[in-house]
Design a protein that fits this description.
about 325 residues; Rossmann fold; alpha/beta; 13 helices; about 40% helix; 2 domains; 10 strands
Length: about 325
């Protein structure tokens, strides 16, 4: 089984018919959601014995031979279909679109569940995601945490330059808005790195102590991470890659105590977990963090458990299980 070792060579990229849809860059992505399963079905992979899909939604629908083995590395069952953070998804959508979106959601749930039945083995990106796979699809899964490039931060000198930091896509479900409210009220310095559909409204909400830096080069982001008072993870994440990167840089994390953060951040040792996505709950966590003492070595030791080398080893093990079982279903 040595040929099943995890490697990631450069590969040609094959796009679907959706790549050439007119106005695809101007019309919101969810208008095309119903086409995604069709796009993945358009790829004929029947020449392959083993296929690994990397998916939340439609990549599970790829077309294979009956005796082929399909392993799905699942980051989460799609949030917009299975009610994960449905309140924030609804807030981001115009009122007049919500009835149509609900009808589409009911239809696409059946499509998504049907595609999940054709997967031989699910690999979940966290225990949180494994629970969601069980609830949404009635399937068991093997947990393999995503690979984190901890070596990127190994040579950085951790320091506290007095600002809190968020590195994130600026989407509704990331819940950055209530952290801005808390920092506005307490006049806490906050730097936000990233872009996304909520950027304009977050800029309008930001007070004088909050800076939205937009997209930055990796090296600048690494320096910001290694020099922050703490990295903030305000939403319920599937895994929470940036939290592990901050710990790899020797910095503590303030995170909502839900989802993947509960599996990576050790409350009181590598950061602070707080219970509710509200300005008040976050403010109490920020006070607790500033009153505490945080050892960079403890954070880095914790981050090392999620290094790329561990991912490769565990992914190989999961792949062997799937191949040894043949076309059977791991459940």
């Amino acid at each position: 089984m040595r040929d099943l070792g995890f490697v990631a060579p450069a590969q040609p990229v094959h796009t679907s018919f959706m790549q050439d849809l007119p106005l695809r860059r101007r019309i919101p992505r969810y208008y095309f959601t119903w086409l995604y399963p069709l796009a993945f079905r358009s790829f004929d992979l029947r020449d392959y014995d083993v296929v690994v899909s990397s998916a939340t939604f439609a990549a599970k629908a790829v077309r294979l031979r009956d005796d082929a083995v399909h392993v799905c590395y699942c980051y989460t069952p799609p949030r917009f279909l299975w009610d994960y953070d449905s309140d924030t998804a609804t807030r981001a959508m115009p009122v007049y679109e919500r009835p149509l979106a609900e009808l589409a959601r009911l239809t696409l749930r059946r499509v998504d569940r049907g595609a999940a039945r054709r997967v031989n083995l699910f690999i979940a990106s966290s225990r949180t995601v494994a629970r969601r796979i069980s609830e949404s699809y009635g399937r068991q899964s093997i947990v393999v945490y995503p690979p984190v490039e901890t070596a990127r931060f190994a040579t950085l000198v951790p320091r506290d330059n007095g600002y809190f930091l968020i590195v994130s896509r600026l989407n509704a479900y990331k819940r950055i808005d209530y952290v801005i409210d808390a920092c506005n009220k307490a006049r806490l310095p906050l730097v936000i790195v990233g872009t996304g559909p909520w950027e304009r409204r977050l800029r309008e909400q930001a007070g004088p102590t909050v800076r939205l830096a937009g997209a930055l080069p990796d090296r600048e982001v690494e320096q910001l991470v290694s020099s922050c008072t703490a990295l903030i993870l305000p939403g319920e994440e599937d895994f929470g890659l940036t939290a592990v990167e901050a710990m790899a840089a020797g910095r503590p994390v303030i995170a909502l105590g839900r989802g993947g953060a509960t599996e990576t951040v050790i409350d009181g040792v590598t950061g602070v977990l707080y219970p509710d996505p509200t300005p008040e709950s976050f403010a109490r966590a920020a006070d607790r963090l500033r009153d505490g003492h945080w050892e960079p070595d403890a954070a880095r030791e914790r981050a090392s458990l999620f290094d790329r080398a561990r991912f490769e080893e565990r992914f190989d093990d999961a792949l062997r299980i799937a191949v040894d079982a043949g076309a059977g279903v791991f459940n």
